[in-house]
C-alpha cells in the first residue's frame, strides 16, 4: 500500500517541480530585472510608462519620478512602479557590428542622424542638391574622352 501511494503522488510531485522551473522561476527572474531597471533610472533617461506616456526624467525621488513630456515640456510626477521601460538614448553611440559589409554601411552606423531645426534641414537639402550635379560632372568626364574620340573620327 505504501508503494501504491508513492506511485500515485510521484506524477503530482513531478508536475509541481516542472511548473516551478518553467513558470515560477523565470517569472521571479524577470521581476527582479524589472525592479533593477526601475531602481537604476537616472535624470536624463527617456522612459515609457505603463500608460504609454513617453518622457524624460527631470528629477528622481525615492518612490517617484518627475518626468517632462511633450513640446510644452509639461512636468508631472509618476511612481517608479509605473515605468514600463527605459528607452535607450538617441545620443548614445551605436555599438560597432562586425560584418563583411562595405565601408559606407559602417560610416552610416557610426554617424547617427541628428535632429535639426527646419532651417538647417533646408540648408542640408540644398547642399545635397548642390552635390548631386558635382557627381554628375564627375561621371561626365569619363564619357567625354569617348565622345572626343568619336568627334575626332568624324572630322
From TrEMBL:
Residues 91-155 are annotated as: Disordered. It comes from the Bacteria. Its main location: membrane. The chain crosses the membrane at residues 6-23. It is found in: Cell membrane. Keywords: Cell membrane, Membrane, Protein transport, Translocation, Transmembrane, Transmembrane helix, Transport. SMART domains: YajC (SM01323). The keyword Protein biosynthesis does not apply. Coiled coil: none annotated. InterPro entries: Preprotein_translocase_YajC. It is a single-pass membrane protein. Residues 128-155 have a biased composition (Acidic residues). Belongs to the YajC family. This is Preprotein translocase subunit YajC.
Amino acid at each position: 500500500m505504501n508503494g501504491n501511494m508513492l506511485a500515485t503522488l510521484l506524477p503530482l510531485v513531478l508536475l509541481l517541480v516542472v511548473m516551478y522551473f518553467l513558470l515560477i522561476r523565470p517569472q521571479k527572474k524577470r521581476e527582479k530585472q524589472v525592479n533593477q531597471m526601475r531602481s537604476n533610472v537616472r535624470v536624463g533617461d527617456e522612459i515609457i510608462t505603463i500608460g504609454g506616456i513617453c518622457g524624460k526624467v527631470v528629477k528622481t525621488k525615492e518612490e517617484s519620478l518627475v518626468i517632462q513630456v511633450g513640446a510644452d515640456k509639461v512636468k508631472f510626477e509618476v511612481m517608479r512602479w509605473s515605468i514600463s521601460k527605459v528607452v535607450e538614448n538617441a545620443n548614445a553611440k551605436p555599438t560597432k557590428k562586425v560584418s563583411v559589409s562595405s565601408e559606407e554601411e559602417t560610416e552610416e552606423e557610426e554617424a547617427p542622424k541628428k535632429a535639426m531645426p527646419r532651417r538647417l534641414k533646408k540648408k542640408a537639402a540644398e547642399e545635397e542638391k548642390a552635390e548631386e550635379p558635382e557627381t554628375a560632372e564627375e561621371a561626365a568626364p569619363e564619357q567625354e574622352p569617348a565622345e572626343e574620340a568619336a568627334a575626332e573620327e568624324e572630322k
